[in-house]
Amino acid sequence: QVQLVESGGGLVQAGGSLRLSCAASARWTMAWFRQAPGKEREVVAGLSWDVNVTYVAASLKGRFTVSGDRDKNTMFLQMNSLEPEDTAVYFCAARESPRLVILPRFYDNWGQGTQVTVSS
């Protein structure tokens, strides 16, 4: 098991920016997911330390960037030009395999989630 602690959510106006952080207790493959009310959980971004791979969902490229601090086992999600449709609870997840996958069912370690609300 790995412990995940998210931070950085909040309320922002449309067009604004937020930076989320997820600190892990081990260097596992990590990903960001989000879930809006009444919608399924969807992948946002992720990274694999071991194979040096990052991923951002195609629909979010250009606005969202994922990065990490390897020494601190911390993953960041920089979100720019935020839109009301980005409003959701954002979850950090981790899996021991170095393979980065985008389906939530392959992750068995989850953070508590952080709320991101974008007002119009």
Explain this structure.
- This protein has 120 residues and is an all-beta fold.
- Helices cover 0% and strands 51% of the residues.
- It has no helices and eleven strands.
- It has strands spanning 4-7, 10-13, 18-24, 29-35, 42-48, 53-56, 64-69, 74-79, 88-95, 109-110, 114-119.
- Strands 2, 4, 5, 6, 9, 10 and 11 form a seven-stranded mixed β-sheet that branches. The chain has a four-stranded antiparallel β-sheet with strand order 1-3-8-7, with no helix packed on it.
- It is globular and about 40 Å long.
- The chain starts with a strand and ends with a strand.
User: Which radius of gyration do the C-alpha atoms yield?
Assistant: 13 Å
Q: What distance lies between the first and last C-alpha atoms, to the nearest angstrom?
A: 39 Å
- Outline the low-pLDDT stretches: none
Task: Estimate the strand proportion.
Answer: over 45%
Could you say which overall geometry the principal axes of the C-alpha atoms support?
globular
The overall average pLDDT, rounded, is 96
Multimeric organization: single chain
How many β-strands, per DSSP? 11
Helical stretch tally = 0
> Structural class of the helices, strands and pairings?
mainly beta
Helix fraction bin: under 10%
Biggest pleated sheet? 7 strands, mixed
